[in-house]
Task: inverse folding
């Protein structure tokens, strides 16, 4: 399953994604951390 979370800057996307990943025990990939 792939879940994409989108929203405005500062809306809590990373926080929300991290919490959901913890609750579901799944991997969390932060696009901000990927080097292009």
Result:
């Amino acid at each position: 399953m792939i879940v994409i979370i989108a929203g405005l800057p500062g809306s809590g996307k990373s926080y929300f994604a991290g919490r959901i990943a913890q609750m579901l025990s799944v991997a969390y990939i932060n696009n901000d951390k990927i080097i292009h």
In short: Residues 19 and 25 are 10 Å apart (CA to CA). The chain has a mean pLDDT of 89. The radius of gyration is 10 Å. Residues 1-36 form one domain.
